[in-house]
Each structure stands twice: as C-alpha cells, then as structure tokens.
C-alpha cells in the first residue's frame, strides 16, 4: 500500500508532525508550476508547497513523451499543459539521504536566481524526489472520456509501482518497503531510473529550473523502471 496525496498548501498544517510515523509511503505531487497560486505580490518568489517539501514525503514530478517522439525515445520534463513543479523548501532542511545529489546539482548547475527568488542557502530540502509520466491520461468525467495532465497523474502511478513491489515482497515473506527516499538516492538504485535531462518548469511565462544530468528540481532522480527496481527492493531486508 502507498498513499498518494494530490494536495498542497504554502502553509504548514498541524498534521505535518504525524507524517514521520506513517507505516506506508506518502507520495505527493509538487505544484504544477513554481509560481502557480503564488501568494507573493507579482509572483516574485518561488512558491514551494507543503506537503511535498516535507523530507518524510516522496515528491513526484511529471514527465512526458515529447511531441514527435515515441515511448522508446527519452522522456522530457512535462511541458504540455502543465509543468513539473520543483524547488527548495523554505522551512525544511536538506535531509542526509539527498545531500550528495542536491549538492551536486547546486554545484554543477547553479540556478540563475537570487536568494530573493528561492532558498539558495544550499542546505534546504530539494524536491521532487522522482517522477513519472504526467501527460495525456484518458479518464472518465461525467460520462465522457477526457485527456488530463498533471503531477496528480504521475503520483498515483508511482504509488501503484510501490504497491506492486510490496506485493512481491509480501509474497517473498518480507514486509512492505516503507519510506523509500533513503534508498532511491543510493548509487545502487540509480541504474533503475531513467535520468531526465531535457525540459524545465518555467510555467506562467517566467523562468524556472531546468532538467540536468543527475537529480534536479524538476524531475528528481528520474523516472522509475519497475523491472529494474523490483529485484533491488526484493534484496532489501
């Protein structure tokens, strides 16, 4: 079981203190754009949402099959209709499990923004943690089929993968994976993710962060390959 919560707010809520006690993974999509719903006048500051900024939550960004490409071609960060949110928390410190990956991004690909626009302290929680396709889903609404886009699509996809992994672990006599963030950032797990190196989250006509090699504040460590992930999770105690 995995819990996917497609909601967010710029204000901390009392229930945040209980997240660390969850037995199952809690997945949350970032806001669709760094400036979407920004309470700051004129949208001059990036707007990191909660709960995706919480270090005990797995943040899920969105990717797409680029126009003119096929599913066999490399994905890009979602730039159709919506953008994959991402950035750095204004409240939570960078957790140890992502310190090497996020520090590498900040060192090798420093964002061209000032500290007045985002938390550039170098010690803030970065998000998302990983991504999945967030474009061109067909759903039924009021008796009709429509296409939808969003991190609210990609987050449940990751949740379903974790559920399949948990099913396999239970069948092998093991327990559920629990909180996955500490392991997905390890070197051993990197080969099980498709690194996203194109696109960005520049929504609303403003600049944003860009996808790069390795972790980035658009698509995290990349999109999971379930076939490669499953044996790695089965190896864990």
UniProtKB/TrEMBL annotation:
Binding-site residues for Ca(2+), renumbered to this chain: 195-196, 214, 216
PROSITE patterns referenced in this protein's UniProt entry, alphabetically: SEDOLISIN
Alphabetic keyword roster: Calcium, Metal-binding, Transferase
GO MF, any single term: serine-type endopeptidase activity
Enzyme Commission number: 2.8.1.8
Cofactor: binding details: Binds 1 Ca(2+) ion per subunit.
GO BP field: proteolysis
SUPFAM superfamilies membership: Subtilisin-like (SSF52743)
Ranges for domain Peptidase S53: 1-236
Cofactor or coenzyme needed: Ca(2+)
Domain of life: Eukaryota
Protein name per UniProt: Lipoyl synthase (LS) (Lipoate synthase) (Lipoic acid synthase) (Sulfur insertion protein LipA))
Organism this protein belongs to: Ganoderma boninense
